[in-house]
């Protein structure tokens, strides 16, 4: 996979580059601020990019804005946004209407190498990756009642909202058959139309939670 | 006797010195201030070239007032308060005075004083000198009148004393001289007192005005302290973000990579695994700490987004309504945020509530306020004098807001705050 990195901390930029190279990916561009990052994406057209939210010159949300630009301009480039803190509002802005090929994770998650690479892979292939903390916030701030769901169904819903596939949910929680059963039950109880493909389900769930 | 004592008392002669010194200073102050004002006003039409001249004149009158206050205190023992110093002591304010400085009561009082000093001193010095000099001259006339040019004292060639009138005239002259001389000390001191009253009227603020000025000064400095504290919190947040947090992420990431490579070697893998867990826990703790110092999303997106995240992290379901169309200044936003944060922490810890409602509305407008209401359906009994609520009240009152806590035993608890946004 060809990856571009936008991160202003030299230490982390080097670390991420090594991590991705060790996993067999190619780092095609690195940048320390939003504008040069956008130029690099336009030039190299990577499969995915990893973007820090807070970068020069204003150190507020230029990474997020750059990520949204990439999402809109090059829909086939996956964007994984990393941040020292996660906010439900930023997630809403990032996935507004189209949670495909985007991800939003706490920076800490890069420490869990396998999970991080899995998230990046999902994003690169048009899926989504939302941090469990964001999902917890979304569930808490949901516009609709979730009271009808059983605790296990809530767990499954949370993993779906994170962008996990059936297989991953099965590994995390229950056996394969049970996953299908839970998901069907959730869709019935929340009054959502059943959807086969993973990312259509994520859209349904996020829409229901009120992010788009 | 007291009249005689007046002739030699220190107070009399200090007052005398005061009058003479005043005249000397008056010549300098009058010349400089009148020239400065005339030149300054005259040059104003020339692209405001007169402004620096007026500024310097103002500064001079200010300095002169200080000298005069010291002189009155030293020679007459008359102490009076000065106007509070202009906080704006920059180089720019020196050369180009601010409007309120130019037209302020303090400024025109000082300049009027600097100019009035000359005529007033002329009168006081003339009067005191006349009493002392004429008194001594007349009183001692009998001693020396024979040595005057032929015929005794004369005015325009007309002899004042002739023939048989000599003795009564000498007596009269001696008595008038004595009266003048005895009157000279009270006159000298009286004029000095009148002088001091004039100076006090022009150089020191009227009662009440001093208090008002002090209140304004305190308000300004308090606002500055609050803003500085807020800026400091934001700086600490950013330093942590750029420093410790980045390094910890890098550390955790490297431990993660090491873990992946060490899968075979049990003992080392376990150690690295443990270090990895610790690094991640440290990151989480640091993140909570940073959020308590200053939540970055508050600066980036404002109250609505920051409170939304806060509500989402609260274990008790929160119904949040934020209607703040215009963002208030950072100090107000920060206080509002931490008020809701503290209230929600209390709800989660003590209230046993099942539901919280947070309503925030208002915002910047002429005389606008930001209004917060946090109500829960818990057991009540919150203590307004507890450390958390007391600290909150202090912080809100620090920007002129007010906090109210209603929490009867059995509930419900309603915490409300009104914060002026001006």
Word description of this protein:
The complex is a heterodimer of chains A (212) and B (422). Chain A folds into two domains: 129 residues, Response regulator (Rossmann fold); 68 residues, Arc Repressor Mutant, subunit A (Orthogonal Bundle), CATH 1.10.10.10. Chain A is globular, with a radius of gyration of 17 Å. Chain A is of the alpha/beta class and 212 residues long. Chain A has ten helices and six strands, in the order βαβαβαβαβαβααααα. The longest helix of chain A has 14 residues. In chain A, helix 2 runs parallel beside helix 3 and helix 6 packs across helix 7. Chain B is α+β, with helices and mostly antiparallel strands. The longest helix of chain B has 53 residues. Chain B is elongated. The two termini of chain B are 67 Å apart. The model of chain B has no long low-confidence stretch (mean pLDDT 86).
In total, the number of strands of chain A is 6
What can be said about the biggest beta sheet of chain B?
A: 5 strands, mixed
- Output the number of helix runs of chain B: 14
* CATH fold type of the largest domain in chain A: Rossmann fold
Q: In CATH's first tier, which class of the largest domain in chain A applies?
A: Alpha Beta
Distance between the termini of chain B: 67 Å
Q: Give the % helix of chain B.
A: 55-70%
Portion of residues in beta strands of chain A equals 5-15%
If you average the pLDDT of chain A, what whole number results? Answer: 86
Tell me the series of helices and strands of chain B, N- to C-terminal.
HHHHHHHEEHHHHHEHEEHEE
Major beta sheet summary of chain A: 6 strands, parallel
Rg over CA atoms of chain B: 39 Å
Number of helices of chain A: 10
Unreliable stretches of chain A (pLDDT < 50, length at least 5) are none
The geometry of chain A reads as globular
| Rg of chain A (C-alpha, Å) | 17 Å
- Main sheet of chain B: which strands, in order across? 3-4-5-7-6
State the share of residues found in helices of chain A, binned by percent. 40-55%
CATH superfamily of the largest domain in chain A: Response regulator
Strand order of the largest sheet of chain A: 2-1-3-4-5-6
- Overall form of chain B: elongated
């Amino acid at each position: 996979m060809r990856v571009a990195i936008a991160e202003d901390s030299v230490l982390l930029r080097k670390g991420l580059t090594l991590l991705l190279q060790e996993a067999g990916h190619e780092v095609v561009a690195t940048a320390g601020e939003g504008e040069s990052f956008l130029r690099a994406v336009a030039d190299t057209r990577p499969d995915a990019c990893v973007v820090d939210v807070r970068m020069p010159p204003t150190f507020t949300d230029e990474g997020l804005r750059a990520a949204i630009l990439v999402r809109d301009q090059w829909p086939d480039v996956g964007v994984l946004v990393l941040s020292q803190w996660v906010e439900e509002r930023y997630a809403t802005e990032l996935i507004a209407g189209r949670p495909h090929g985007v991800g939003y994770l706490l920076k800490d998650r890069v420490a869990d190498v396998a999970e991080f690479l899995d998230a990046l892979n999902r994003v690169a292939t048009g899926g989504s990756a939302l941090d469990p903390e964001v999902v917890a916030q979304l569930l808490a701030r949901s516009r609709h009642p979730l009271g009808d769901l059983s605790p296990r169904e809530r767990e499954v819903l949370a993993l779906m909202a994170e962008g996990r596939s059936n297989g991953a949910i099965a590994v995390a929680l229950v056996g394969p058959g049970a996953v299908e059963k839970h998901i069907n039950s959730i869709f019935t109880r929340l009054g959502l139309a059943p959807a086969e493909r993973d990312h259509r389900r994520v859209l349904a769930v996020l829409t229901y939670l009120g992010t788009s | 006797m007291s009249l005689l004592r007046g002739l030699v008392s220190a107070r009399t002669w200090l007052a005398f010195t005061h009058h003479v010194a005043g005249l000397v200073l008056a010549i300098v102050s009058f010349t400089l201030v009148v020239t400065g004002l005339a030149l300054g006003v005259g040059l104003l039409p020339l692209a405001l070239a007169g402004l620096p001249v007026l500024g310097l004149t103002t500064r001079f009158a200010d300095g002169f007032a200080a000298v005069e206050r010291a002189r009155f205190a030293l020679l007459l023992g008359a102490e009076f308060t000065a106007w509070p110093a202009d906080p704006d002591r920059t180089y720019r304010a020196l050369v180009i005075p601010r409007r309120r400085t130019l037209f302020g009561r303090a400024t025109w009082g000082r300049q009027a004083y600097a100019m009035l000093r000359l005529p007033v001193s002329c009168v006081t010095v003339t009067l005191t000198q006349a009493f002392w000099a004429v008194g001594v001259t007349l009183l001692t006339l009998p001693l020396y009148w024979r040595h005057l040019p032929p015929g005794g004292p004369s005015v325009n060639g007309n002899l004042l004393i002739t023939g048989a009138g000599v003795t009564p005239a000498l007596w009269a002259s001696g008595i008038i001289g004595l009266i003048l001389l005895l009157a000279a000390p009270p006159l000298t001191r009286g004029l000095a007192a009148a002088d001091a009253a004039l100076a006090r009227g022009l150089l020191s603020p009227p009662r009440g005005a001093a208090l008002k000025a002090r209140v304004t000064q305190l308000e300004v400095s308090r606002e500055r302290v609050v803003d500085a504290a807020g800026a400091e919190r934001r700086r600490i947040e950013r330093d942590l973000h750029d420093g410790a947090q980045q390094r910890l992420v890098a550390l955790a990431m490297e431990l993660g990579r090491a873990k992946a490579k060490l899968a075979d070697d049990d003992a080392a893998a376990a150690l690295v695994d443990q270090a990895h867990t610790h690094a991640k826990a440290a990151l989480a703790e640091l993140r909570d700490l940073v959020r308590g110092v200053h939540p970055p999303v508050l600066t980036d997106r404002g109250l609505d987004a920051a409170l939304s995240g806060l509500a989402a992290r609260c274990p008790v379901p929160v119904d949040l309504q934020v209607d703040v169309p215009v963002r208030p200044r950072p100090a107000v936003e920060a206080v509002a945020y931490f008020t809701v944060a503290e209230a929600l922490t209390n709800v989660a810890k003590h209230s046993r509530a099942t539901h919280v409602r947070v309503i925030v509305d208002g915002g910047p407008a002429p005389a606008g306020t930001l209004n917060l209401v946090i109500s829960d359906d818990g057991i009540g009994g919150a203590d307004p004098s507890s450390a958390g609520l007391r600290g909150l009240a202090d912080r809100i009152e620090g920007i002129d807001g007010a906090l109210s806590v209603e929490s009867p035993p059995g509930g419900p608890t309603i915490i409300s705050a009104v914060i002026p946004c001006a």
